[in-house]
C-alpha cells in the first residue's frame, strides 16, 4: 500500500505530506542529472527549449541561464499541479519577462506548436508515462527536424525502485523507451554512461527525423 502511494506521488506529486517529501527528494537527488541534461543538450542562446516533467524547476533554471539571446525561449510541461505551482514560483521572473512559459499538461497532449522546439530534455520521468509511444510521438511532433532530445537517469537506482514497486515496472528499462523513440520517428538513438560529482548516470540521445 505504501509503495503504491509513493509510486503515485513520484509520478504525479500532490500538495500533501508525501508530495512534499517527494519534492525534497527530487530537489536533492535530481540536481546533477538536471544540470547535465541541460549541458548535454548544447543549448544555444537563441534556442527554443522544452523540459518535459520539470518537477520543482531545477532544470528550467539551468536551461534559462543558456538562453541569453532575446529570441531564446523556454517551455516546460508537467502533469502535476503541485510541481507546476512550485516551479512557477521558482522561475516567476522568467515567466513575467516572457522568457519562460510553463504548462500543466500531459506529455502526450502538449499545448505547443508543431516543429517549434530546438532542444528537449527530461530527467527521471519517462517510466511514469502511461504510453511510451504516445509520449514519444508527441515530443517528435513539437520538435523541429534535426532537433536533439536528451534524457538523463541512473539505471541502477531506477532498477532498484522498480524492484520495490516504487515506479511502474513495465516502462522503466531504457531499451523500452529507446524502442518507443525508434517507432515514432527518432533517429541516432544511443545511450552513454557519464559521471559528475562522483555520481554515475546514463544519458539517452535522440534526434527528430528530418
TrEMBL record:
Origin superkingdom: Eukaryota
InterPro entries reported in the protein's UniProt record: Erg6_SMT_methyltransf, Methyltransf_25, SAM-dependent_MTases_sf
Organism of origin: Conger conger
Keyword Magnesium among UniProt keywords: no
Pfam family, one: Methyltransf_25
GO terms for cellular component: endoplasmic reticulum
Chain ranges of the Methyltransferase domain: 49-146
GO biological process: sterol biosynthetic process
Sorted UniProt keywords: Transferase
UniProt similarity note: Belongs to the class I-like SAM-binding methyltransferase superfamily. Erg6/SMT family.
PANTHER family: HYPOTHETICAL LOC100005854 (PTHR44068:SF1), ZGC:194242 (PTHR44068)
Gene Ontology MF terms: sterol 24-C-methyltransferase activity
Protein name: Methyltransferase domain-containing protein
